[in-house]
UniProtKB/TrEMBL annotation:
Catalytic activity: dCMP + ATP = dCDP + ADP; CMP + ATP = CDP + ADP
Lineage: superkingdom: Bacteria
Entry keyword set: ATP-binding, Cytoplasm, Kinase, Nucleotide-binding, Transferase
GO molecular function terms listed in the Swiss-Prot or TrEMBL record: ATP binding; dCMP kinase activity
NCBIfam families found in the cross-reference section: cmk (TIGR00017)
Designated name of the protein: Cytidylate kinase
Lineage: Bacteria, Thermotogati, Deinococcota, Deinococci, Deinococcales
Residues noted as binding ATP in the record, renumbered to the chain: G7, V8, A9, A10, S11, G12, K13, S14, S15
Protein's cellular compartments: Cytoplasm
BP term (GO), one: pyrimidine nucleotide metabolic process
Amino acid sequence: MIVTIDGVAASGKSSVSSGVAQALGVPYVSSGLLYRAVTLLGLEAGADLAQPGALLPLLSGVRLEPLASGNRVWNAVHDLTADLHSTRVDTGVSVVAALPEIREWVDAQLRALPAPLVAEGRDMGTNVFPHAPHKFYLTASPRVRAERRARERPEDIPAIEAALTERDRQDTTQSAPAPDARIIDTGPLTLQGVIDTILEHLR
Ligand SMILES: Nc1ncnc2c1ncn2[C@@H]1O[C@H](COP(=O)(O)OP(=O)(O)O)[C@@H](O)[C@H]1O
Ligand SMILES: Nc1ccn([C@H]2C[C@H](O)[C@@H](COP(=O)(O)OP(=O)(O)O)O2)c(=O)n1
């Protein structure tokens, strides 16, 4: 069984997926972490983030470890995870995620993973796992999302809100909800409330 949980930036996808996956006793996979890893490696190599030919050679050692408590991304023996949520990766990642060659590489990593699993991102229910039987799409207002992210970033809430809104705009193409996804406004809910809502639908 595959459960897809897509949604806009900072809507709670990773935290909710982790909770749902732990309740189900299956792994979850964060596709956004792979786009973030490509971005980090590109930045560290001084590569042009708009050029897939400069990025693809950097990816041969990259591997996603789908731990239920929190995914990790490795480049050979180096654990990249702690560096994937910086503001500079946030700023560059949408350029990388717009490249069809990089999307193909990410999709291949995800489709190689054995079910059952919970997959989260933008296009899990539309493109990567279109036949998944259970699809969810998380939303919340930009201000609510910025307030949540402000607990994890040094910038203030208005700056974070502006950056999130700009990233939503850049990610629009791949972020449409699947027609058969259940849309959940997480604004009025607690994190556990969102997890419980999804688990109730799965029962
Ligand atoms: N009702 C809620 N639903 C989802 N996440 C919430 C909620 N309330 C607070 N959060 C917090 O919002 C933050 C962003 O969630 P995260 O899982 O990183 O989002 P995403 O994967 O969509 O970027 C986390 O710190 C999470 O715990
Ligand atoms: N399936 C996916 C997952 C993420 N992306 C892109 C879009 C986002 O800007 C980045 C980072 O996504 P991630 O889910 O890690 O982070 P945010 O919730 O957006 O803060 O990757 C994508 O295009 N397709």
